[in-house]
């Protein structure tokens, strides 16, 4: 059977409350019984002291204990200790005491069974040698003794065996009433707790229900789903994390759709050109000569580069792009990339300004082929998007922990708000860096993947020459942990 979390929480709260109430009830039951018993024993201890005073006065009046050997005299003395007014009468001696109510004869075996639990049945008188003179207890274990002294001399002891449990009807009735009251209080407390726990459980579970419903909508593809953020507690933090997750999924879905649309567009354009060229040749509109073959070959190469770039991006996404890293001199890799494209810069009329350290020392732990691809892509990007007659400055600086490479070209430039998007896939600045220049918007994205794979950073900044400055920072081998 499926139990909702609200009722599970309610059951848990009621179980905890019930355990506390039952424990409190049992403890209070025990405390009332034992506390009241201790109170009764304390009261009887006070009476025992009064009885000792009665016996002292009686001993002074008679000179010995012979008067207390009879049961009738003994119980008359015990009765005299019941109230404080009896002490005044005891001062006049045993002969002047008013006769108490008749006592039954306890010399035989006819005393009432419950009499032994009363004060009269648990008190006894001992002489100075602790020999029994009067009283009913036959054993003296666990008997509290009180000295009877005359002029500083011990003439006897009066003893009392403490109560082990309550026997008086009124005392038992009082304890019973207290226990019933405690039971009623426990029941009321449990009911009040149940009345409070149900709305409290509902209130605690309500944010979780909202989160569950929002999670269901999010799983169904509604990435615009958001939940209100509550107080600064665990549920509030969970709501904030949920909103962050929903925002990330929404951005990823938007990027995926844009990615699919851009890839489709990039593939459709060269295919449309190829189709048009081939159909024109088939229809006889154009002749299959060197010029048409050159055009077809150019579109095929563009399509091939696009497919290769997409393939590398996909390999990076799935973590299958391999890197064979080793200790290499960054200066040598950069010089190789510059030498391979230096002639093309001269043909376009772009002047190169190169600043490299004279001595080696920029040693990095990297894949030389991937770094050559990185620098070649950046140089090719500047070659395509720099106006003829412009300039490109390349600088390599080796610090204590980082090697910094900068590529700063001349106009045209990029708006500052678009610089950080240059590394997005299939992104192009339409005003200048468009498809007519031959790019698909994947070169810088591949560069960013290569740099991140080498634990470095790459940034796009405004160039002092009016174009774009690309800054690459890579950790040196001495800075690796």
UniProtKB/TrEMBL annotation:
Membrane topology type: Multi-pass membrane protein
SMART domains, sorted: HAMP, HATPase_c, HisKA
One Gene Ontology cellular component: plasma membrane
Enzyme nomenclature, EC number: 2.7.13.3
Compositional bias ranges of the Basic and acidic residues kind: 86-97
GO molecular function: ATP binding; phosphorelay sensor kinase activity
Chain segments annotated as transmembrane: 7-32, 180-201
InterPro entries, alphabetized: HAMP_dom (IPR003660), HATPase_C_sf (IPR036890), HATPase_dom (IPR003594), His_kinase_dom (IPR005467), HisK_dim/P_dom (IPR003661), HisK_dim/P_sf (IPR036097), HssS/ArlS-like (IPR050398), Sig_transdc_His_kin-like_C (IPR004358)
Keywords recorded for this protein, A-Z: ATP-binding, Cell membrane, Kinase, Membrane, Nucleotide-binding, Phosphoprotein, Transferase, Transmembrane, Transmembrane helix, Two-component regulatory system
Chain ranges of the HAMP domain: 202-254
EC class (word): transferase
Chief subcellular location: membrane
Ranges in a coiled coil: none
One Pfam family recorded for the sequence: HisKA
Xref: Gene3D superfamilies: 1.10.287.130, 6.10.340.10, Histidine kinase-like ATPase, C-terminal domain
Compartments, as annotated in UniProt: Cell membrane
PANTHER family found in the cross-reference section: SENSOR HISTIDINE KINASE CPXA
Name of this protein: histidine kinase
UniProt organism field: Citrifermentans bremense
């Amino acid at each position: 059977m499926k139990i909702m979390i609200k009722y599970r929480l309610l059951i848990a709260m009621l179980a905890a409350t019930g355990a506390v109430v039952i424990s409190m009830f049992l403890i209070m039951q025990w405390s009332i019984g034992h506390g009241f018993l201790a109170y009764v024993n304390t009261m009887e201890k006070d009476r025992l002291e009064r009885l000792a005073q009665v016996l002292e006065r009686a001993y002074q009046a008679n000179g010995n204990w012979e008067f207390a050997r009879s049961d009738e005299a003994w119980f008359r003395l015990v009765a005299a200790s019941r109230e404080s007014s009896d002490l005044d009468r005891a001062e006049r001696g045993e002969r002047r005491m008013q006769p108490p109510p008749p006592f039954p004869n306890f010399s035989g075996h006819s005393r009432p069974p419950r009499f032994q639990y009363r004060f009269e049945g648990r008190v006894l008188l001992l002489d100075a040698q602790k020999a029994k003179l009067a009283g009913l207890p036959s054993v003296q274990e666990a008997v509290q003794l009180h000295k009877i002294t005359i002029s500083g001399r011990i003439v006897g002891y009066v003893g009392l065996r403490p109560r082990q449990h309550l026997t008086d009807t009124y005392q038992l009735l009082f304890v019973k009433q207290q226990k019933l009251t405690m039971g009623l209080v426990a029941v009321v407390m449990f009911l009040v707790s149940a009345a409070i726990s149900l709305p409290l459980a509902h209130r605690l579970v309500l944010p979780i229900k909202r989160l569950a419903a929002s999670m269901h909508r999010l799983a169904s593809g509604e990435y615009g789903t958001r939940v209100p953020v509550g107080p600064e507690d665990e549920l509030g933090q969970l709501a904030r994390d949920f909103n962050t997750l929903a925002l990330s999924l929404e951005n990823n879905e938007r990027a995926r759709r844009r990615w699919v649309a851009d890839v489709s567009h990039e593939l459709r354009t060269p295919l449309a050109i190829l189709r048009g060229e081939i159909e024109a040749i088939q229809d006889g509109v154009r002749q299959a000569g060197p010029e048409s073959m050159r055009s077809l070959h150019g579109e095929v190469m563009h399509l091939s580069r696009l497919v290769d770039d997409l393939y590398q991006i996909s390999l990076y996404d799935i973590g299958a792009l391999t890197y064979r890293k080793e200790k290499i001199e960054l200066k040598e890799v950069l010089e190789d990339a510059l030498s391979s494209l230096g002639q093309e810069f001269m043909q376009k009329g772009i002047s190169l300004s190169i600043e490299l350290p004279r001595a080696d020392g920029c040693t990095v732990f990297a894949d030389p082929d991937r770094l050559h691809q990185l620098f070649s892509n950046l140089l090719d990007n500047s070659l395509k998007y720099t106006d003829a007659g412009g300039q490109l400055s390349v600088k390599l600086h080796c610090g204590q922990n980082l090697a910094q490479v900068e590529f700063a070209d001349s106009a045209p430039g990029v708006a500052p708000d678009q610089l950080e998007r240059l590394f997005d896939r299939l992104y192009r600045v339409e005003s200048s860096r468009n498809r007519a220049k031959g790019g698909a918007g994947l070169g810088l994205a591949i560069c960013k993947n290569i740099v991140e794979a080498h634990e470095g950073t790459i940034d796009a900044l405004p160039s002092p020459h009016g174009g774009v400055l690309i800054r690459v920072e890579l950790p040196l081998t001495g800075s690796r942990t």
